[in-house]
Amino acid sequence: MRAAVAQVDIDRRGAVFAVQARAHVAAPLSLAWATVTDYETLPAFIPDITSSRILERRRDGAVEHLLLEQRGALRFLFFTRPVAVRLRIEQQQPSRVVAHHVVRPEGGADDEVRSFDGDYLLEEDAAGTTLSYHARIEPAFDLPPIVGAMLVRRTVRAQFQALVDEIERRAGTLAAPLR
């Protein structure tokens, strides 16, 4: 069976990339939620993420707060740029995840994001779940205008599609993992 196709739009204004992505998956909300929030397993199915680990976790009523550290790379043709980021995440189960970049306490050259704000919204209907993703990303390094836009577009599309594919694989509506 063919996976749902993700729609991904990226708009660049100066150094800032605005991302909008959306897909409808043939899976219940609970399964989509479990996959989106399975942070420590992301490197197994999201391309170019090499590690993802939860550093802190606490609950404040209905909101769960996490500090997440991720490492990976941006790749395009012969260009590879390592990326490391820490994110403060607020989860409102079962439908919303909000993430904000936080500066590493030690600072340093491996903090590759100047700013990041993103959110996932999951909405269930009779046929499955709609997954919407919005982000504002400002790298802490310069990306050439044309190559930079292609690099970010390719990375976001591949990663969002891999998430969609994994949700459907876990739901049994996609025959086999694509990686």
In short:
The chain has 179 residues and is of the alpha+beta class. The chain is built from three helices and eight strands, in the order E-E-H-H-E-E-E-E-E-E-H.
Q: Which short descriptors sum up this protein?
A:
179 residues; alpha+beta; eight-stranded antiparallel sheet; 3 helices; globular
Explain this structure to me?
- The chain is 22% helix and 49% strand.
- By secondary structure, the chain is α+β, with helices and mostly antiparallel strands.
- The chain has an eight-stranded antiparallel sheet with strand order 1-2-8-7-6-5-4-3.
- Helix 1 (29-36) packs across helix 3.
- The longest helix has 27 residues, at 145-171.
- It is globular, with a radius of gyration of 16 Å.
- The two termini are 16 Å apart.
- The mean pLDDT is 88.
Write the layout of secondary structure elements.
Elements: E1 7-13, E2 16-25, H1 29-36, H2 42-45, E3 49-60, E4 63-76, E5 79-92, E6 96-101, E7 113-125, E8 128-139, H3 145-171
Antiparallel strand pairs: 1-2, 2-8, 3-4, 4-5, 5-6, 6-7, 7-8
The arrangement of helices and strands along the chain is: EEHHEEEEEEH
Report the span from N to C terminus: 16 Å
Residue fraction in strands:
over 45%
Q: Give the averaged pLDDT, no decimals.
A: 88
Helix amount, in percent? 10-25%
Derived from helix and strand composition plus strand pairing, the structural class reads alpha+beta
Tell me, briefly, the overall form: globular
Rg from alpha-carbon coordinates: 16 Å
Helical segment count: 3
> How many beta strands in the DSSP annotation?
8
Walk across the major sheet and give the strand order. 1-2-8-7-6-5-4-3
Q: What does the largest sheet look like?
A: 8 strands, antiparallel
Low-confidence stretches: none
